[in-house]
């Protein structure tokens, strides 16, 4: 199904894109809901094995100040969904000075389901003010690969203000809940040696696997500014800083390969 949920307001656009994935009874995955919305266009791409693949294509610039975007994905029992994006998302200032934009992501994975959330980077352009909120709910036995990459400013540019919160729950219990704020108006010292240390690209990788109940990868340092940390559950967290998006992706890709080999 290809539908739309979009509204315009005096200060911005409100749009919610929705995806649902279900096992088709023959070992494959179908997408009963694939609902695009305004600037959030969803396109199914060539599948890989029993995994359905969806690409998020930005049909417009944004989010701009005043916009309210959301993406919702539900993965049913036994279904496998890989969601990526065609290009980086760029947060830009809106017409109304000081107007805040929001980008909400809500993910729900049932027992035996698997979601690989691997979009391109989010770039916080000068003058923008964006709040990102991601909520992930997993049933016991669900699998998740979640990558988040944020770049503070375009080349040679100071960043906008970016506030990002990630909450992951497993079986209704908190697995991870963290928040970061960067850019103008953020708490003092956000760019200091104890926080970002002058780096302009930051990212994290969360991997949840039932196999980690028996054997979780050991904590380790990954390169100069990255680390792998086991969580209090069948999951690991990789956090990384880098001078630019290219080097950040390289670190996270290598970390993901190592974690999946360990599983």
TrEMBL record:
Listed Low complexity bias regions: 1-16
Annotated region described as Disordered, given as residue ranges: 1-31
Keyword terms, alphabetized: Chaperone, Cytoplasm, Nickel insertion
Subcellular location: Cytoplasm
InterPro entries: UreD (IPR002669)
Main location class: cytoplasm
Cross-referenced Pfam families: UreD
Function in brief: Required for maturation of urease via the functional incorporation of the urease nickel metallocenter.
Oligomer status and interactors: UreD, UreF and UreG form a complex that acts as a GTP-hydrolysis-dependent molecular chaperone, activating the urease apoprotein by helping to assemble the nickel containing metallocenter of UreC. The UreE protein probably delivers the nickel.
Family statement drawn from the similarity comment of this UniProt entry: Belongs to the UreD family.
Identification of the protein by name: Urease accessory protein UreD
Organism: Streptomyces graminofaciens
């Amino acid at each position: 199904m290809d539908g739309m949920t979009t509204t315009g307001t005096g200060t911005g656009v409100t749009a919610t894109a929705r995806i649902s994935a279900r096992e088709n009874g023959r070992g494959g995955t179908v997408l009963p809901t694939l609902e695009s919305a305004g600037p959030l266009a969803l396109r199914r791409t060539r599948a890989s094995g029993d995994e359905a693949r969806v690409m998020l294509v930005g049909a417009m610039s944004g989010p701009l100040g005043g916009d309210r975007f959301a993406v919702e994905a539900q993965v049913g029992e036994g279904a496998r969904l890989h969601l990526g994006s065609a290009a980086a998302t760029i947060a830009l200032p809106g017409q109304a000075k000081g107007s805040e934009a929001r980008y909400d992501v809500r993910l729900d994975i049932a027992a035996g389901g698997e979601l690989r959330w691997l979009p391109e980077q989010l770039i916080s352009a000068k003058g923008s003010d964006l709040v990102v909120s991601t909520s992930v709910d997993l049933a016991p036995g669900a699998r998740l690969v979640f990558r988040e990459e944020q770049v503070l400013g375009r080349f040679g540019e100071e960043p906008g203000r970016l506030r990002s919160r990630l909450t992951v729950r497993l079986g209704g219990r908190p697995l991870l809940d963290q928040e970061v704020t960067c850019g103008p108006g953020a708490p003092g010292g956000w760019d200091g040696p104890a926080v970002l240390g002058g780096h302009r690209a930051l990212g994290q990788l969360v991997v949840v696997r039932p196999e980690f109940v028996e054997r979780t990868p050991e904590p380790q340092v990954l390169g100069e500014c990255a680390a792998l940390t086991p969580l209090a559950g069948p999951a690991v967290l990789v956090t990384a800083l880098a001078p630019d998006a290219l080097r950040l992706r390289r670190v996270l890709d290598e970390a993901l390969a190592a974690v999946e080999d360990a599983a």
